[in-house]
Specification:
Alpha-Beta Plaits
Length: 94
Amino acid sequence: MTNDPKATLVRIAGRVQGVSFRVWTRGQAQRLGLTGWVRNEADGSVTALIAGPDSAVTAMLKQFWLGPPGASVSSVETESASSREVPSGFRITK
């Protein structure tokens, strides 16, 4: 067993841009002690890389379905990611 955090790449679709989804994601991730990043995509979706303890990652994946006020999430797609790609802290990228 390894001490590496669980890392997951997430694509959130729906009405997720123009509703402060990235700022909300950063706040939720910091509250849960997760590291990673979040960014808007050209197709209107949001992509996030989240890493941390399994329970915190699971909690964040549930939160993505709720989103901030004004958001309407239609899908949350996940795939495993390498924890080596995860930065320290949590940041909003382009």
